[in-house]
Design brief:
Blueprint: E1 14-19, H1 25-37, E2 43-47, E3 63-66, H2 73-85, E4 90-94, H3 97-101, H4 106-113, H5 120-135, E5 140-156, E6 159-169, E7 181-185, E8 191-196, H6 211-222, H7 236-242, H8 247-256, H9 258-262, H10 265-284
Parallel strand pairs: 1-5, 1-7, 2-3, 2-4, 4-5
Antiparallel strand pairs: 5-6, 7-8
Helix pairs in contact: 1-6, 2-5, 5-10, 7-10
Length: 286
């Protein structure tokens, strides 16, 4: 354990866009992605929205990976890994809502297990592995999420009445806190920041996302010391960990390379991510 001075590192952005249907999530994400890397051929869209990504093909030569039901966390993780292995610089997940509330998503999985509170002990590790695939990706990641009207039960004298309580994101509560930036879009496609670790947009007037937005974010990502080392798909260590199909194999890999792993936080994180993925697969079979 060693104390050190805080140092700004170059980073990969984790940016969220949330809106109601028709709020411009897909279109805005493509524009921001183009600004981020300058080349749409290096952008991939994981499309769960029935082909909506293809509606904007006129914008450029980006890539589309259709994802259909069942929308399990593991299938999302597989899609993210496919994009990374293909060398994509920006991955757009459009949208993450299905992983939570879609056919085969977390809520449905819990119902199939019996719908009891304790069933979440089996599903939460699978959802967490999905989050970690986003947070530890070697690419920039843009997520979109649907928002819907939320309702509250309010006591009025001796009666209970239902009132509108605002808009709520369709994903597990607290997801936006995992992101670097979260932008909320209104029906006119104007964006405001609900969370912003970069301080680029927080407290600023609403704006329409564009390529310039991505360029500004890219500049922020490049400020600081050389980017933290990322163990990318295709690398020797990535392949070693990825081929472990059980906890036993993962432990054996660790034991064989204990001195190297114990001194490398990136390897520790890579092994921890794989352990969570194996937990998900094991619990899925339960």
């Amino acid at each position: 354990m060693q104390l050190r001075k805080a140092t700004r590192k170059k980073a990969k952005i984790r940016l969220g866009l949330s809106a109601v249907s028709g709020g411009g999530k897909t279109y805005s994400s493509i524009l921001i992605a183009k600004g981020l890397c300058g080349d749409l051929s290096k952008v991939a869209i994981i499309d769960t929205e029935n082909g909506s990504a293809d509606l904007y093909a006129h914008l450029g030569d980006y890539n589309v990976l259709p994802l259909t039901a069942p929308f399990t966390p593991e299938r999302y993780i597989e899609a993210i890994r496919s994009c990374e292995a293909a060398g994509m610089e920006v991955i757009i997940i459009d949208s993450i809502s299905h992983e939570w509330d879609g056919k085969g998503g977390c809520l449905e999985i819990v119902e199939q297990l019996g719908g009891k509170y304790q069933d979440w002990a089996k599903v939460t590790p699978r959802h967490q592995a999905f989050l970690e695939a986003i947070l530890h990706s070697s690419s920039h990641v843009i997520t979109t999420v649907r928002r819907k009207q939320d309702y509250e039960m309010v006591k009025d004298g001796n009666r209970i009445k239902i009132e509108k309580g605002g808009l709520k994101e369709i994903t597990r509560e607290g997801f936006e806190y995992e992101l670097t930036i979260n932008l909320e879009l209104d029906t006119n496609h104007n964006a405001t920041a609900s969370k912003d670790r970069t301080n680029l947009f927080m407290g600023k007037p609403a704006f329409v996302p564009s390529e310039k937005t991505g360029e500004i974010v890219a500049q922020w990502c490049e400020q600081g010391e050389e980017q933290f080392n990322v163990i990318k798909p295709g690398s020797d260590w990535y392949q070693k960990v990825d081929t472990c199909g059980s906890h036993k194999e993962l432990v054996e890999l660790y034991q064989k390379n204990k001195p190297e792993v114990d001194t490398n936080p990136l390897l520790q994180q890579l092994i921890a991510n794989r352990r969570n993925q194996l937990n998900g697969k094991t619990l899925s079979a339960a």
